[in-house]
Every structure is written in structure tokens, then in C-alpha cells.
């Protein structure tokens, strides 16, 4: 029996804007197994969150629309599924933790009522029983004095506690897969570590799949099993986490890693990738990273590289991946 929970194949999403058609997701493919964490990395605007929204079926349409590909969840294509069937899967089998917890939570409902609503709607519980389950869930994600705090509103919690409530909400119906979209944004370093440790613990406890969307390579080092790096709507590198950190096979990934502050480089100027990501309405021909790439040659400006097989379980969309690895 296959262990694959989510299999995204050649997904394409476009936004029609005044400046033209923005190809926000341009042929993305990845898969996630039960009990596995896939980290999706990249700068803002690379298409990470749009991919997640398309998977969840919550893409703003218009202006966005899925123009191609498949999103298979346990073998069933979510993109061709009726809205009622998809609604039954969303929340119960496939859940999402949103980037801004304060905006995602209803400001005029207590957190206990919002968590309990999941049980009332999906499992037909009474309000009293649903609240009791909500309190247990808040306790599970380590919110102190959960029984008392269930009657509080979102603005009465700190950023880290609000993010724990979002995790509790995603976890309420014990889904098979959770997509966490920048779950540590705007949190201090200590709280970031606590949230990431909690997600890893819950993943192991429930043997669920986890897609972790982030722009911070440092956040996922100890949590992810595999990494998919996105740039300009495409995946440019995939690899097991330790192999990618040890030897990146794409110049963009290498640049991201070199831009992380390190104690052994104290006093040196921090590296930064030159230039800016391209506009998604005018992605350059060839490799989209070529205007910023230190290895770019003529072929990079004319021929778009496929995802080359670098090693078992590894891929790089770079014509000169061997040079990047130091093998060329």
C-alpha cells in the first residue's frame, strides 16, 4: 500500500492583472508521505503560498485560476472533485495553519468557541461537549490555564499563543496532512523554536504529513526531512535536508545558505544575493534565476533547465549543477 498522502503534479496557477498574466505557479511537482515533513523554501513571491492555497482549494478566483496539473490526495484529484466532497476533506483530512494568526482567527468569537465549532460542524457534538474537547486541545498545545483561557478572545493572547491556537485548530479533527504557511512569522527566536518543536512532536504523535512553507532556512534545519526550493513559480532544487545543507546543487539555494549569519564568519560582511526576483508577468527566458546567477552563461539565457537528476532523491534545475556542487 502506498504511503504517499499528497502528490502535486505539474501544478500551474495564473493571475490576470492589469500588467498582464502572472504565472505564480509554473509546473510545480512534489509529494509528501505520512509521517514526513517537506519544507518548501523561497523568497517572498516565489509561489509557495499560492501552491498551498491551490492545494487547499481556497485560491481567490478571480483573479487566480488553476490552469493545469493534478493535486492527488490519497490518490484522488482534488482539482476535479466537487466542492461538497472537497469541503468534507478540508479540515477533516487536510488542514492548514495560516501565516497571520491574528487575521485568521475571528476577532469577535472566543478561541474556545472557534475550536469547538469544528466539532459541532464536523462531528455533530453539543456545544458543551465541543467546548470540553476544545479545552483539551488547547491543553495539548500547551496553552496554560486552558479551561479559563478558552473564554478569551484572540487579541488577548500573545503572538506565540495565537499560533498555538491555530495549530490546535488545524489539529482538531486529526487530519492526515497539515500545511503550515510561515507558522513562525513575526515570532521571536525562542518562540519560533517552541512552535517548530511542537509541530514536530505532533507530526510524530499522529503520524501525519507536514508541508512547512517558509523563507527561513534556519527554521527548518532540525524539523524537515526533505526540502523543495522554489524560485519564480518553479521548484529549482529538491533534496533530503542534510544533503542540501551540506552541498546545495543550485546557485540560488547556495546563495540562500550563504546569507545565513554564522558564528564562524563573525566580523565578515554578510552575503546577499544580488538583484531582485523577476516580475511574474515578465519572467526572463531561459533560467529565471540567470540575471542574478554568478554562474550564468549564454545557455542559461535561452534554454530553461529541466529538473536534472543529481542523485537518488535529488534534483536541480541548473545547467551547471555539477559546478555548483564542485564536481565540474
Describe this structure in words.
GO terms for molecular function: ATP binding; ATP hydrolysis activity. This is ABC transporter ATP-binding protein. Residues 8-257 form the ABC transporter domain. One of its GO terms (cellular component) is plasma membrane. The protein has helices at residues 48-56, 83-89, 101-104, 111-123, 127-140, 146-149, 159-171, 189-206, 217-220, 241-246, 251-258, 298-302, 321-325, and strands at 4-17, 20-33, 37-41, 64-73, 76-77, 94-97, 177-181, 209-214, 226-231, 234-240, 308-311, 314-316. It is of the alpha/beta class and 328 residues long. The chain has a domain at 249-328. The strands form two sheets. It has an eight-stranded mixed β-sheet, sandwiched between helices. Strands 2-1-4-5 form a four-stranded antiparallel β-sheet, with helices on one face. Strand 11 (308-311) and strand 12 (314-316) form a beta hairpin. The protein is globular and about 65 Å long. The mean pLDDT is 91.
SSE layout and pairing:
Elements: E1 4-17, E2 20-33, E3 37-41, H1 48-56, E4 64-73, E5 76-77, H2 83-89, E6 94-97, H3 101-104, H4 111-123, H5 127-140, H6 146-149, H7 159-171, E7 177-181, H8 189-206, E8 209-214, H9 217-220, E9 226-231, E10 234-240, H10 241-246, H11 251-258, H12 298-302, E11 308-311, E12 314-316, H13 321-325
Parallel strand pairs: 3-8, 3-9, 6-7, 7-8
Antiparallel strand pairs: 1-2, 1-4, 4-5, 9-10, 10-12, 11-12
Amino acid at each position: 500500500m502506498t504511503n504517499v498522502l499528497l502528490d502535486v503534479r505539474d501544478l500551474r496557477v495564473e493571475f490576470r492583472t492589469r500588467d498582464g498574466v502572472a504565472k505564480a505557479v509554473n509546473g510545480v511537482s512534489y509529494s509528501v508521505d505520512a509521517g514526513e515533513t517537506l519544507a518548501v523554501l523561497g523568497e517572498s513571491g516565489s509561489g509557495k503560498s499560492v501552491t498551498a492555497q491551490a492545494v487547499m482549494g481556497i485560491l481567490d478566483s478571480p483573479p487566480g485560476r488553476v490552469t493545469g496539473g493534478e493535486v492527488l490526495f490519497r490518490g484522488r484529484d482534488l482539482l476535479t472533485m466537487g466542492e461538497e466532497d472537497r469541503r468534507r476533506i478540508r479540515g477533516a483530512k487536510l488542514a492548514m495553519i495560516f501565516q497571520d494568526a491574528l487575521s485568521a482567527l475571528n476577532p469577535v468569537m472566543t478561541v474556545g468557541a472557534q475550536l469547538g465549532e469544528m466539532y459541532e460542524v464536523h462531528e455533530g457534538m453539543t456545544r458543551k461537549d465541543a467546548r470540553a474537547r476544545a479545552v483539551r486541545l488547547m491543553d495539548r498545545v500547551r496553552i496554560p490555564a486552558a479551561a479559563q483561557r478558552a473564554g478569551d478572545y484572540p487579541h488577548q493572547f500573545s503572538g506565540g499563543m495565537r499560533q498555538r491556537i491555530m495549530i490546535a485548530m488545524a489539529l482538531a479533527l486529526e487530519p492526515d496532512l497539515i500545511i503550515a504557511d510561515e507558522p513562525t512569522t513575526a515570532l521571536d527566536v525562542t518562540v519560533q523554536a517552541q512552535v517548530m518543536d511542537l509541530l514536530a512532536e505532533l507530526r510524530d504523535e499522529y503520524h501525519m504529513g507536514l508541508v512547512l512553507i517558509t523563507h527561513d532556512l534556519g527554521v527548518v534545519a532540525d524539523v524537515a526531512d526533505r526540502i523543495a526550493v522554489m524560485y519564480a513559480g518553479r521548484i529549482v532544487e529538491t533534496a533530503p535536508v542534510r544533503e542540501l545543507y551540506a552541498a546545495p546543487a543550485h546557485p540560488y539555494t547556495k546563495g540562500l545558505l550563504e546569507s545565513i549569519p554564522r558564528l564562524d564568519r563573525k566580523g565578515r560582511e554578510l552575503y546577499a544575493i544580488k538583484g531582485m526576483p523577476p516580475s511574474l508577468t515578465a519572467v526572463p527566458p531561459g533560467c529565471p534565476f540567470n540575471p542574478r546567477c554568478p554562474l550564468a552563461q549564454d545557455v542559461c539565457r535561452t534554454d530553461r533547465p529541466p529538473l536534472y537528476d543529481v542523485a537518488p532523491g535529488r534534483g536541480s534545475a541548473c545547467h551547471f549543477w555539477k559546478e555548483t556542487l564542485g564536481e565540474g
